[in-house]
Amino acid sequence: MKLFGFFGYSIVFLKALAEAWIDVVKRSFDGKIDPEVIEINTDINSLMGQVLLASSITLTPGTLTIDLDSENKILKVASISPRTKDEIVPFEPYIKKIFD
Question: What is the pTM of this model?
Fold first, then answer.
């Protein structure tokens, strides 16, 4: 199960990385930037899993994890445009499979 989670995470993360990179390039040219900070609740119980999730968000262009409350399982994320939780963390279920 952990191997499937890691493989799935890798594929989904690379896809999200490519999509976010293209989105940031487009927004750089057309100027459609509307930054916001949102709180994301996570179902990941493991601290290592939460840190991987936070790092993955930060590595994705256009988003930055600015706080991690591991006890309450909440991440504060800055984004260059309004986005839903599923758009920001499509790889969360795979990280959960790896660490939980």
Answer: 0.91
